[in-house]
Amino acid sequence: MSHATPLAKVTDEFCYDFTLFNFFEEGKLPLILKRTTLMNSNVFKLILLGASAYALFVFLVISFYPDKPENMDWKDREEYNKVQITKLRLGSTLDEVLALLGSPDITEARMEKGSSVQVMFYRTHHVRADGMTTLDECTPLLFENDKLIAWGEGAYQSFQQS
Fold first, then answer.
1. How far is CA 108 from CA 74, 104, 117, 138, in A?
2. Which tens digit of pLDDT belongs to each residue from 82-119?
């Protein structure tokens, strides 16, 4: 019988570090290794559960919290507008364009020979760091009777000439 005292205790709930003294004689070493392995697998399961919960949270935020143009800073809004304008097609309604791009940065409208003509400007590039959005920083979209008939620099020139 050894006079060494155990430096740790094995219980049903916890496993502490042990210093070997004569566990081989008493057959306790396999029990210690088994409990340590069980604890390591429980820690691994908790880490995996936490990572899974975080991934689920990120997925839900991305899926159910859509990025709206109104909530973007000006740099993100410019990039967003560029991408969305490439998806436009002639004949799109004013409501479809507003749903896609949000409110315009600048707009002009008038009645001409019984038709409503409107040009909406969406910021698509940066010219000056003056804190203001100007026409030269925007892409114009031209509507006649709430239908998209043209966009780009030529659209605004035709609006001005008519």
1. 21, 10, 9, 13
2. 999 999 999 999 999 999 998 999 999 999 888 999 99
Residue ranges of alpha helices (H) inside the chain are 23-26, 29-64, 74-85, 94-101, 153-161
Do 120 and 138 form a contact (C-beta atoms < 8 A)? Answer: no
Chain-centre distance for alpha carbon 25: 60
pTM metric for this prediction: 0.58
Q: Look up residue 90 and give its DSSP letter.
A: T
Beta bridge partners of 138: 123
Burial per residue of 89-128, b for 16 or more beta-carbon CB atoms within 10 angstroms, e otherwise: eeebebeebeeebbebbeebeeeeeeeebbbbbbbbeeee
For the chain, which domains are there?
A: 1-65 (no CATH), 69-161 (3.30.1450.10)
Mean pLDDT, the chain, whole residue set: 79
Are 132 and 147 in contact, with CB atoms under 8 Å apart?
Answer: no
pLDDT (average), residues 118-123: 93
